Amino acid sequence: MIAPSFYETHKAIKDGLTDEVLEKGGRGSTKSSFISIELILQLINHPECHAVVLRKVANTLRTSVYAQVCWAITELGLGSKFRCTVSPMECVYKQTGQKIMFFGMDDPGKLKSIKVPFGYIGLAWFEELDQFSGPEEVRSVEQSILRGGAYSLTFKSFNPPAMARNWANRYALESKPGKRVHHSTYIEAPPEWLGPRFLADAEHLKRTNETAYLHEYMGEVVGCGTQVFDNLQLKKITDKEIEGFDRILNGVDWGWYPDPFAFCRMHYDAARKNLYIFDEIRVHKMRNNETAELVKAKILPEEIVIADSAEKKSVSDYRALGIRCRDADKGPGSVQYSMKWLQSLGSIVIDPERCPHTAKEFSEYEYERDKKTGEILEGYPDVANHHIDAVRYATNQIWKRRGQ
If exposure means fewest CB atoms within 10 Å of the residue's CB, which of 70, 76, 177, 347 is most exposed? Predict the structure, then answer.
């Protein structure tokens, strides 16, 4: 009843290893089908527990999540076990009286007045997560409804918006104990579930508009033509991979407040022109001797750290503290040249769990537009780029060899 891509998530839920499941992906990935089936299973397995299903706008409930939950009930062979009504909109498990209730966030007052005949609300599903106002709104709902009881599980699902800076895309990159993030696409679903027309339309779009295909069907964050790094890959870098890295680079961008001190650690695969960023430090209001201790805990004694040459004293401090620190060789045009070099790489791979701040900066870094004409402006914005600068400094000895 569920696509193979969801087996591991199903097992994690069954074994009690997660209390928040974030399902993102493209059109036809069957993520809503999976969640609706899992919601019913967990409701039945926890007889004191009720469920709430939410969308941003109430008038979209009946033809989307309500219909989806009714489908799941029928698919599981439980049609006679549930009573489903639209006024009030709810599905009641007859054997216990447990309820699945449906609400829109355009009337938040209804959420505050939810009453259940017994037990507590322990299950919640936020469909089309990106349509909610932001993490504060979602968190407020969770705090209001998920009270009491030993068990709770939240589902959040959405098709990633094109812009990396959208709050839901950012939220997917944040790690939290008990949170499980899973990405799925139509390719992993049994073809017979989707039908020949769906598959034909997907293939046609792939041939005629690859960017739209990657966004709509593969659920990729493609930007709106202003993203600087088209070669970015956000994915897990394993301990085994890191053990095999033999060309380690370290970079520092000095900062105090509001600008942060930023450190990045990476490996450059020269043969394939791939850069792997697997560690970071980001702190505010820490002195050089304090940040030096953090850096020394990350690196080997023989490794070199290349730092922003604008602060000669800080570079000297690091040397005095036992770090082999060098100034970055800047010079005229160094920003443009180093940025173009990064853009020319086969891929820039960043582990979003190990390096959340670096992943955020690279994925959200965009060219500026003229406010009147909307045209993209030349040059690279000097804003929210501290880890990007640390990466530029770390790779300084490579990209400054012009012509290579």
Answer: 177
Question: Within this chain, do residues 257 and 380 fall inside the same structural domain, yes or no?
Answer: yes
For residue 172, give its domain range. 4-207
If one counts the domains in the chain, the total is 2
CA dihedral 231, 189, 40, 103 (to 10 degrees): 50
pLDDT in tens, 371-394: 777 777 888 888 899 999 999 999
The answer to whether 159 touches 219, Cβ cutoff 8 Å, is: yes
Residues 72 and 25 grouped into a single domain: yes
User: For 47-83, how does the pLDDT look when each residue is reduced to its tens digit (9 = 90+)?
Assistant: 999 999 999 999 999 999 999 999 999 999 999 999 9
CB under 8 Å, gap of 24 or more: what pairs does 90-95 form?
A: 93/43, 93/44
pLDDT score at 393: 97
pTM of the model: 0.70
Contact present, 102 and 65 (Cβ < 8 Å): yes
Task: Say if residue 172 is in the same domain as residue 91.
Answer: yes
d(CA 216, CA 28): 9
Domain for residue 197, yes or no? yes
- Using CA atoms, how far residue 336 sits from 250, 392, 397, in Å, is 20, 11, 15
**Distance (Å, whole) CA 63 – CA 86:** 11
Q: Residue 274 domain-assigned? A: yes
CATH number, domain containing residue 59 = 3.40.50.300
Q: CA–CA separation, 93 vs 90, rounded Å? A: 10
Residues 47 and 185 in one domain: yes
Residue showing tokens 């850096």: 295
Structure tokens at 398: 């490579």
Tally of CA atoms within 13 A in the half-sphere of 77 that contains its CB: 1
Q: Establish if 216 belongs to a structural domain.
A: no
CATH of the domain at 373: 3.30.420.280
Find the radius of gyration of the CA atoms of the chain: 25
Q: Cβ(76)–Cβ(122) under 8 Å?
A: no
Structure token digits, residue 37: 């089936």
Q: Which of these ranges, 69-73, 144-148, 217-221, 355-359, has the smallest mean pLDDT?
A: 144-148
Query: Which range among 86-95, 279-288, 326-335 shows the weakest confidence by mean pLDDT?
Result: 326-335
Characterize the bridge pairing of strands 232-234 and 179-184: unpaired
CA distance 355 to 358: 5
Q: 324 and 200, same structural domain?
A: no
